[in-house]
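[Discussion] Sanity-checking designs against the backbone

I'm trying to build intuition for which residues belong where. Below is a structure token string of 505 positions. I'd appreciate it if someone posts a full sequence so I can compare it with mine line by line.
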């Protein structure tokens, strides 16, 4: 069964752009004209791109973990679907799709080979998606979703237990990347030499570095750079220093404190859908009491944190969803909250991590603010890889997290479910609230468009009413690019960084 290379249904404008995209990427370039060859800058066989990244791999670069976003940012693994700037779904390894109730049928792109030389088929897609759907834990994007996948000739059908309007957006998550059979031969999923992108992951040196080489058989055309050399530099000061010293061409997540020390022309600042939030443990300890959660909320002075810690390079939060989603502010209404009670010296422990340089400073500021309000506050600050499991297990009374709100699907309903549903896999607040769960279920089941946006804001209000999470500020991407870097991505969703078009002069 072959599907037309278009999305159904589509507006005329979107349909036109989809046809253009499909035409541009119908197969590998053969004459080099679309790859910068012969343009005099040596881009196609020039310098390798050196990247300094913040977080080292936590799961051996398994696509079933958050490491998947590294694979996406290196253009080493691809999904059936991508998202445009507005969060709408567009073809990638799938050429188009149709919905029939609970079942979606996806046409699979022809002429695509994995990095090991094997061919992309419907069976390849079924294998990858089934492994993700049956993983324990599941990728966040599949929280609350039961799906089965099967091959139907050259197409793939995805059937969900309940009708789900967000299936294409879900399949855009890097955690649902399609890999060759070799990736799944062990107990863990290994992406080395198993992706379909313009760059092949060839070597991973634990948590210190990774090497990628151009894959000349890429279906979308030959990459302009011969490869990517990645170093993981968790320390923000050291990471920024690699740009000043010329050791790196691209530096992600430049700390605010370091941005002013760099040449302004090398720094790009992009508003992003990322919220710095104080999660409160609602299941155990002092913050099991809603009145004490309200006291903590009233004690937090986010404006002073934005001015003092972020030097004005952030936005004070009015809710969990920030200015990167401009529709949220116009729909939001004040949340109904309980009355606060005096802390009376209650002892609390706040956890956070060092990987984002600002967070330890945020923790110190919050410590002072909450102590002033009457709490006795202890801090526990470590690298993220060493603290995540304790946070998810509810070992802290409070936890400060910089959280991307549309990272997985381009739709905030998935983030809200993951973080605040009783069955959510990233429920740091240990929240279990019937009103919240009902609002989240409604948002998840509403079709895309204005109605879904309104239901998302209703779900946000239900969460805020519990004071399980206190949104403080919305961050901005600060990325450093050396003067010779061309066509690097500045992606607020943190899915794209080095693409087939990126090169170093």
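Best answer:
Here's mine. Compare freely.
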């Amino acid at each position: 069964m072959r599907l037309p290379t278009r999305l159904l249904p589509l507006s005329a404008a979107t349909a036109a752009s989809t046809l253009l995209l499909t035409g541009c990427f119908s197969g590998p370039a053969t004459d080099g004209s679309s790859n910068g060859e012969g343009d005099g800058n040596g881009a196609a066989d020039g310098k390798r791109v050196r990247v300094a990244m913040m977080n080292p791999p936590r799961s051996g670069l398994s696509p079933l973990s958050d490491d998947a976003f590294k694979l996406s940012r290196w253009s080493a693994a691809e999904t059936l679907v991508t998202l445009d700037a507005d969060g709408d779904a567009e073809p990638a390894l799938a050429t188009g799709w149709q919905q029939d109730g609970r079942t979606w049928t996806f046409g699979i792109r022809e002429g695509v080979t994995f990095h090991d030389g094997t061919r992309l088929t419907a069976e390849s897609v079924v294998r990858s998606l089934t492994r993700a759907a049956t993983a324990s834990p599941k990728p966040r994007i599949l929280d609350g979703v039961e799906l089965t996948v099967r091959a139907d000739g050259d197409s793939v059908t995805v059937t969900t237990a309940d009708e789900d309007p967000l299936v294409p957006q879900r399949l855009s998550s890097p955690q649902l990347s399609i890999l060759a059979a070799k990736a799944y031969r062990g107990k863990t999923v290994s992406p080395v030499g198993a992706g379909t992108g313009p760059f092949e992951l060839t070597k991973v040196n634990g948590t210190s570095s990774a090497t990628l080489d151009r894959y000349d058989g890429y279906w979308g055309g030959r990459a302009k750079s011969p490869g990517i050399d990645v170093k993981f530099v968790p320390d923000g000061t050291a990471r920024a220093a690699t740009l000043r010293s010329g050791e790196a061409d691209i530096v992600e997540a430049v700390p605010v404190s370091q941005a002013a020390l760099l040449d302004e022309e090398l720094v790009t600042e992009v508003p992003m859908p990322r919220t710095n939030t104080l999660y409160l443990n609602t299941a155990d300890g002092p913050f099991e009491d809603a009145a004490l959660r309200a006291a903590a909320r009233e004690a937090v002075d986010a404006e002073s944190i934005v001015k003092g810690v972020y030097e004005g390079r952030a936005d004070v939060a009015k809710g969990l969803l920030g200015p990167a989603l401009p529709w949220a502010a116009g729909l939001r209404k004040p949340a109904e909250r309980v009355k606060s009670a005096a802390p009376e010296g209650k002892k609390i422990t706040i956890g956070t991590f060092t990987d984002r340089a600002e967070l330890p400073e945020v923790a110190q500021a919050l410590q002072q603010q909450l102590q002033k309000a009457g709490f006795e506050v202890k801090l526990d600050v470590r690298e993220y890889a060493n603290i995540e499991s304790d946070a998810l297990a509810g070992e802290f009374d409070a936890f400060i997290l910089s959280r991307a709100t549309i990272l997985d699907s381009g739709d905030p309903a998935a983030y809200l479910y993951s973080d605040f549903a009783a069955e959510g896999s990233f429920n740091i607040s240990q929240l279990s609230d019937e009103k919240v769960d009902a609002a989240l279920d409604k948002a998840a089941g509403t079709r895309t468009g204005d109605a879904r946006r309104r239901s998302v804001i209703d779900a946000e209000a239900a969460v805020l009413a519990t004071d399980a999470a206190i949104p403080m500020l919305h961050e901005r991407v600060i990325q450093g690019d050396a003067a010779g870097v061309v066509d690097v991505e500045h992606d607020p969703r943190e899915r794209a960084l080095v693409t087939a078009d990126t090169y170093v002069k």
